[in-house]
Amino acid sequence: MESIRGRLCKAPENFLAPVDIVQVGAQARQGRRDFIRGAFAAAVAAGGAASVHAQAKVQGAGDPAILELPAHTKGLGQAVATDGYGLPSKHEKNVQRRISPGLTQTRQSSVSFAPLQSLFGIVTPSGLHFERHHQGWWDIDPTQHRLMVNGLVKTPMVFTMDDLMRLPSVSRFHFIECGANTGMEWGNVAVPTVQYTHGMLSCSEFTGVPLIELLNLAGADLSQGQFALAEGGDGSSMTRTIPMSLIRSGEVLVAYGQNGEMLRPENGYPLRLVVPGVQGVSWVKWLRRIEVGDKPWGTKDEAVHYVDLMPDGSHRQYTSIQECKSVVTSPSGGQVLLDKGFHTITGLAWSGRGKVKRVDVSTDGGRNWRMARLESPVMSKCLTRFNLPWSWDGKPAVIQSRAVDETGFVQPTYAQLRAVRGTRSIYHNNSIQSWLVQASGEVMNVQHV
Ligand code: MTE
Question: Does residue 172's CB lie within 6 angstroms of at least one atom of ligand 1?
Fold first, then answer.
């Protein structure tokens, strides 16, 4: 684990506020300018504009990056990209999905984590969306792909992609979180960065057809048919039971769109199930069949995996809803605060039961809390971005966030969660995360303390 942390500490996206270029060297220069820009905007909101402005003026004096015209202001830039797919700047190459060495043995049954520490707002760029495959991914030919609807229906039906895309569609923003997100913490492993603690989480605008419309077209028996089985088209035999109550609400989508374009192959192209608020495993990818039935199927991914072992030895099954949770993404583990003074604490909050109502932030390990500003829009079963201005006095500080959703559910502390759930789980850890900012500015995970 140490080696991962060492590597990530050097990644540019982890530098926050390099102020004194003499002390921190050339690598920090770019960060300093970013800091000044960011801090200035934030300080205006926080009422501290004057002091940051003065600081920026002093530091700007004699800066060659201001005084000397860079080459790009004088020469001919690159030609317009006439074809091809646009890529991020080469300076952002450290912002990547990452796999956790040692977590899985093969890259086919594995997970790649989203770099939450580097993202703004609530939407995860499709190329940074986390991945979780049980048996590898496929780039399926959409002209050959079919979706069958059978079981307790009047007319079993088979849809082509063309059939589906002709139907009225909806587009909605939702988070997807793997039930195993933050799972290592059950075993007291202080995973080094927020990418690894919480990065099995992403948020997209999904476009597709409400599943209930397809069931109605097939004449599903909705009184006897209380459940639907969703089956994926990969080799993992991924099948999950979805309660009809969720489908009937119109929220469950048969989706082909993600952030304005077709789904990425690794996220289920050309078709996946979107089950808002429910753990990621139910968002069946490469969706090929929906069967209506009168009882849960109890498949391998419902009976053996994705169950919670309780302290009394019993299992919780079908614990699908992702309860209210939040995490500070910056400052977070592996990052370095390069000076005391103004910083913005920022993070993400979400609830599988609806909208986030409020997020409180503590900088003293939970003794005192301040209400964070929620960025709009705040949407149901979607990520919500929160921000809080903070002046760091250079002393050790334990930073935490605590979310409350519209049902009144309050995100538990680690101790509260363990008092009910014990220590033997893998899934469904929604406890408050603690990051320690050390006097050196280095931030580390102290969740296990
Ligand atoms: N669907 C199929 N067919 N095969 C899979 O391996 N993995 C599931 C789910 N759907 C999976 C699947 C799991 S465990 C999760 S958390 C989500 O897909 C991950 O979705 P993503 O890879 O788009 O992030």
Answer: no
